[in-house]
């Protein structure tokens, strides 16, 4: 990547962000990461996840505890660094929580993006990879889902924030040709870095399936709650396209490669495996890989959930030269390694005090 030198990663201390930073450093980019620790663990020294990223890669990450709702704080970072491109992960992301606290999600996700875009424009930075979501498709009209599938009939507030941002980006790129943006619609990220040093460490009770499942396997929780057993699927549980977080990370590097060599204006790509797996099938593989037993408790469907969703990732393969490499077994194996090496997640020290500090 000869042209891009420094990439700003928002939400860089989070689950997907930290894994992506590993790949960015390994292809020779300099990374400036910011996070407000809404979805990530922080301490008085910054981000334990990013310190472990430095351990994995042998390279330095410049980190700031910062919030996108604090526009002057973000502007200060752009003043201190010549940012060539932004990868925007930072967002509140729990479907269940979004249905209970919609205003919190609209404020954080939409205003955060607005502030970021305005600061970028003020600093002549027009290159972005945006972390979107397959939730923008709503209940699928057909499967597998291509990028041409209709968007907008969304079943939850979190997904609507991603949809509204995508619409904002369409208007922005139509009005100003300088912008060069790729929107990546993720399916369901799972797994962890193969080293076991970094992984998913939820900070809220609204947690994803695999961390909860691993806590049950460790005996820290008594039972795995499965929302819905009466879906029209092979075993009655919901179907999702689970993608290894390192495959997701490599998709961002592929997107940067395209932005580096082409002016795409605004392009959208699905990042998924192209295979649907039920919740029960994922549990079965996890039990087999970990040699544990996961007791299940079936409850009513969760508000905002859909029946089945999996990607057609062929456009990303064709135009980004990207495809997934990891199997469901590897996803479970890598997450279990992370969880058994770190049964309590990252070390929990004192929370950071919000002062803007750069740590290299």
Characterization of this structure:
This protein is an alpha/beta fold and 360 residues long. The chain has a single domain (6-341), classed as Rossmann fold (3-Layer(aba) Sandwich), CATH 3.40.50. It has 11 helices and 13 strands. It has helices at 15-26, 48-57, 71-80, 95-100, 102-122, 157-175, 209-217, 245-261, 279-290, 314-319, 328-341; strands at residues 6-10, 30-35, 62-65, 85-88, 127-133, 180-186, 188-190, 224-227, 239-240, 242-244, 266-271, 277-278, 296-299. Mean pLDDT is 94; it is low at 350-360.
SSE blueprint:
Layout: E1 6-10, H1 15-26, E2 30-35, H2 48-57, E3 62-65, H3 71-80, E4 85-88, H4 95-100, H5 102-122, E5 127-133, H6 157-175, E6 180-186, E7 188-190, H7 209-217, E8 224-227, E9 239-240, E10 242-244, H8 245-261, E11 266-271, E12 277-278, H9 279-290, E13 296-299, H10 314-319, H11 328-341
Helix pairs in contact: 1-2, 1-8, 3-5, 5-6, 7-11, 9-11
């Amino acid at each position: 990547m000869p042209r891009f030198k420094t990439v700003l990663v928002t939400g860089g201390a989070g689950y997907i962000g930290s894994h992506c930073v590993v790949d960015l450093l390994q292809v020779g980019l300099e990374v400036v990461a910011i996070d407000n620790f809404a979805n990530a663990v922080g301490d008085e020294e910054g981000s334990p996840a990013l310190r472990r990223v430095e351990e994995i890669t042998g390279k330095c990450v410049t980190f700031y505890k910062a919030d996108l709702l604090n526009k002057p704080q973000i502007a200060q970072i752009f003043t201190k660094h010549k940012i060539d491109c932004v990868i925007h992960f930072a967002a509140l992301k729990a479907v269940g929580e979004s249905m209970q606290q919609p205003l919190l999600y609209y404020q954080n996700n939409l205003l955060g993006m607005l502030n970021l875009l305005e600061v970028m424009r003020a600093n002549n930075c027009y290159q972005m990879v945006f972390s979107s979501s397959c939730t923008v498709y709503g209940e699928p009209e057909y499967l597998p889902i291509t990028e041409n599938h209709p968007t907008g009939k969304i079943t939850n507030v979190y997904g609507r924030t991603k949809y509204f941002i995508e619409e904002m980006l369409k208007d922005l790129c139509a009005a100003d040709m300088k912008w060069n943006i790729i929107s990546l619609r993720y399916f369901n990220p799972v797994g962890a870095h193969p080293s076991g040093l970094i992984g998913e460490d939820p900070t809220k009770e609204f947690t994803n399936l695999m961390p909860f499942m691993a806590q049950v396997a460790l005996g820290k929780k008594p039972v795995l709650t499965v929302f819905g057993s009466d879906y029209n699927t092979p075993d009655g549980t919901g179907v999702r396209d689970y993608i290894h977080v390192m495959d997701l990370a490599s998709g961002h590097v592929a997107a940067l490669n395209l932005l580096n060599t082409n002016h795409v204006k605004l392009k959208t790509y699905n990042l998924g495996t192209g295979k649907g797996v039920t919740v029960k099938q994922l549990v079965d593989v996890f039990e087999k890989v970990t040699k544990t037993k996961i007791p299940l408790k079936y409850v009513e469907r969760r508000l905002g959930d859909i029946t089945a969703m999996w990607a057609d990732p062929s456009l990303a393969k064709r135009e980004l030269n990207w495809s997934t490499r990891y199997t469901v077994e590897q996803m479970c194996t890598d997450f279990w390694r992370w969880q058994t090496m770190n049964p309590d997640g990252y070390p929990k020290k004192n929370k950071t005090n919000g002062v803007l500090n750069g740590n290299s």
